[in-house]
Design brief:
With 151 residues, this protein is mainly alpha-helical. It contains four helices and four strands. Strand 3 (124-126) and strand 4 (133-135) form a beta hairpin. Helix 2 crosses helix 4.
Length: 151
């Protein structure tokens, strides 16, 4: 049983999938940082110093009339919050990942199309009189002996 598991785990597809998952997780971390640290601050600045990670609605505060300056303060106090700013960040992260995957697949498809050989030139043609297949360079049909026009 251990031998079978080792054969399964060492298959090329399983190892490739594991590498893809690890690289995908690392790429996700990079995209999250890109969104949180690079993209969202200028957008927030353009929208009047809005910090998207601190956009939330208090559904139920810890005590009556609680007002919180940040999401961390609300969570620390035990308030129930609707974190729509974090959701916006997640949507932007998803769009960036989806676009990066689109570009990757587009590049792979382009490489695959370049590898395909162009169609071969035809080597035979049809005799217009007897409809037999003859070599393309033939000047007389071997089947009906009619003369053919040079191509």
């Amino acid at each position: 049983m251990l031998k079978e598991f080792k054969e399964f785990a060492m298959r090329g597809n399983v190892v490739d999938m594991a590498v893809g998952i690890i690289i995908g997780a690392a790429f996700g971390t990079i995209v999250k940082s890109l969104v949180a640290d690079i993209i969202m601050p200028p957008i927030g600045l353009l929208l009047g110093n809005v910090d998207f990670s601190n956009l939330f609605i208090v559904l139920k505060g810890a005590a009556a009339g609680d007002a919180f300056a940040s999401l961390a303060d609300a969570q620390k106090a035990g308030a129930v919050t609707l974190n729509y700013g974090l959701f916006i960040n997640t949507i932007i992260s998803f769009l960036i990942v989806a676009f990066a995957i689109f570009l990757l697949i587009k590049g792979l498809n382009k490489m695959k199309r370049e590898e395909e050989a162009p169609p071969e030139e035809p080597t035979t043609k049809e005799c217009p009189r007897c409809l037999s297949t003859i070599p393309i360079k033939a000047t007389r049909c071997a089947h009906c002996t009619s003369e053919l026009e040079a191509a």
